[in-house]
Amino acid sequence: MKLNRHLNTDTLHSDLKRRSLLSGLISFAAQPIKLAVGIGSTAILARMLSPAEFGLVAMVAPLLAFADSLSNFGLETAAIQRQELNNQQLSASFWLSLKVNAVIVCLMVIMAPILAHFYGEEKLVGITIAMTFGFSIVCLTFVHKSLLKRQMRFGILTTIEVISLVVAAAIAIFAASKGWGYWSLVLQLVVMQLIQSIAYLIICPWLPEKQIKAKTQKIDSNLQAMLSYGAHLTGFRFLMRIGMHLDRILIGYLSGATALGLYQIAYKWAYFSFEQVYFPLFDVAVSSFSRTLHDTNLYRSYCRKGLMLLFALCMPALAFLFVEAQNVLLLLLGNQWLQAVPLFRVLNVAVFVGSMHRVTKWLYVSSGQTQQQFRWALIHTPIVIIAVIIGSLWGAFGVATGYATAICLLTYPSVAFCLKTSPLTGKDFLSAVGCPAVCSISAAVVIYLCKQLLPNVDNLIISLSVSFVIFCFTYILFWLIFPGGRITIIEILQNIKQLRKKSNES
Fold first, then answer.
1. 256 — alpha (psi -120 to 50), left (phi > 0) or beta?
2. Which run of H or of E encompasses 262?
3. DSSP 22
4. How far apart are alpha carbons 375 and 441 in whole angstroms?
5. Distance (Å, rounded) from C-alpha 394 to C-alpha 337?
6. Per mean pLDDT, which range of 226-235, 360-369, 398-407, 413-422 is the poorest?
7. 214 φ/ψ angles, rounded to the nearest 5 degrees
8. Can you tell me the distance from the alpha carbon of 7 to that of 298, in angstroms, rounded to the nearest whole number?
9. Is residue 314 within 8 Å of 278, Cβ to Cβ?
């Protein structure tokens, strides 16, 4: 019975809209806490540690990213996306993933001294091995996490994530105060991974079958379908992460740990606001969209609403940060990080425009079009690699510019390629992104002009507060003026009202 409870999703279909809205609200309700922890811990650690110490940990990040793209062979997402799933399929997925991840872990340990020699930093041996340990823990619980996502138990998932973030941040700050240096950053990641994995095992006590007995051809074909789905998704992830992490590899090799530390912080903060919205919504979106594939109109409706929500939240944040980049970084990180401001602004543009490309993953994954997604990666990644290599001739800023240019130029072809095989139309996509993009840019122009025309305020907090208030007011105003903007706001409010009503009834 417990097993059926974990695997069965039939009960979701009768109340999918409410569950989707509730999941989204739960995820976003936790964002202020996650945001505060993320900003607060980074701000404190940035003042306690040097750019070079951040750079050391960033040197290992590409290796971890490549390993993560290959781990579990995409079977976690495949388990979430499939309409029907049984224990034999899950068990087969688990044991296969365990073998693959064991090989990956061994390769990472072997790579530790090679990585240290490549960068000329002996400290990387210990850092790599420690972070490999954290990676291996996560690999053991991917099925448990996928089952929780499949059941849309995002309240539990969000709680686990928040607790792990808070505890890991507190331990990292304590370690840094005791002089642990870069080890405090390593400890933060490993502790977070350990807490989350233990929690998944406790909340979802699933155990794989000791021996998989493929009694029917149906089971074999179903597993093959999952592997095909996962293989293309894995190939896409691996290729995309080559393009996303080559910049840091080149900067670390050519310019050293300090330059990489500055770039890593700029990159992290450029993507920070986007990721705070994208990742919580991704799990909800894929689970919800996948359950509506039987109805094209319903699928399109869910997609439009999901994309609209993402763009409406992340684009204004990115536009505001572009204008106020210097003041924000100065306030949060201190003077030693001001050199990261130009890098931050360039990467911010890449995130703003590239957000339209990133959301195609929602459409590919939810509709099972991972093969098409992989084909695009074969086009996308070589262009990004070439752009970054050319940009490396001008140092870290050149790398950032090359990366941003490639992302911006590839966004439209990426979206067009995705929509060729998606139930979503170009008009649907444009209706989701048009209003948030125009209103965000317009509000950013307003506060830029205000900064030029109004007298300067010496106090950073007051200056940022005034700019933020003006930005929010103008963003909402432009949204109301924009064609269809009022209707969208009314629809959102009605959905929230409906959700509250159903919650009270239940």
1. left
2. helix 257-290
3. H
4. 32
5. 20
6. 226-235
7. -80, 85
8. 24
9. yes
Amino acid residing at 311: F
Other beta carbons less than 10 A from residue 473's beta carbon: 12
CA distance to 58, 163, 194, 359, 407, per residue, from 414 (Å): 28, 37, 36, 10, 10
Cβ–Cβ < 8 Å for 396, 263: yes
Alpha-carbon distance 275 to 319, whole Å? 15
148, 183 contact by CB (below 8 A): no
Dihedral Cα 154, 159, 160, 165, nearest 10 deg? 120
Query: What are the C-alpha distances in Å from 89 to residues 3, 123, 184, 227?
Result: 13, 42, 40, 10
How far is it, in rounded angstroms, from Cα 463 to Cα 456? 8
**Residue 495, pLDDT score:** 56
Confidence of residue 303 (pLDDT cuts 50, 70, 90): confident
106 and 257 Cβ atoms separated by less than 8 Å:
no
Lowest mean pLDDT among 56-60, 207-211, 360-364, 396-400: 207-211
Contact 292, 299 (CB under 8 A): yes
Amino acid 462 reads: I
Instruction: Put residue 216 in one of left, alpha, beta given phi > 0 → left and psi -120 to 50 → alpha.
Output: beta
For residues 227-236, average pLDDT: 66
Q: What's the residue count for the chain? A: 506
> Under a CB-based contact definition with an 8 Å cutoff, are residues 468 and 346 in contact?
no
Is 50 exceeded by the pLDDT of residue 283?
yes
Over residues 61-72, the pLDDT tens digits come to: 888 888 877 776
Token pair, residue 240, equals 């995309």
* Longest CA pairwise span in the chain (Å): 77
Quote the CA–CA distance of 250 and 291 in Å, as a whole number: 42
Q: Is the pTM of this model over 0.85?
A: no
Using one digit for the tens of pLDDT, what is the confidence trace for 477-489? 998 887 777 777 6
In this structure, which amino acid lies at residue 369?
Answer: Q
Question: In this predicted structure, what is the pLDDT of residue 207?
Answer: 77
* Contact criterion met (CB below 8 Å) for 167 and 188: no
CB 138 within 8 A of CB 195: no
Q: Which amino acid is at 140?
A: L
Domain ranges of the chain: 2-206+219-505
Pair of tokens at residue 159: 């709680």
CA pair distance 134, 406, nearest whole angstrom: 33
pLDDT in tens, 166-223: 999 999 999 999 999 999 999 999 999 999 999 988 888 777 777 544 444 444 555 6
The single-letter DSSP state of residue 392 is G
The answer to whether residues 59 and 260 touch, using CB atoms and an 8 Å cutoff, is yes
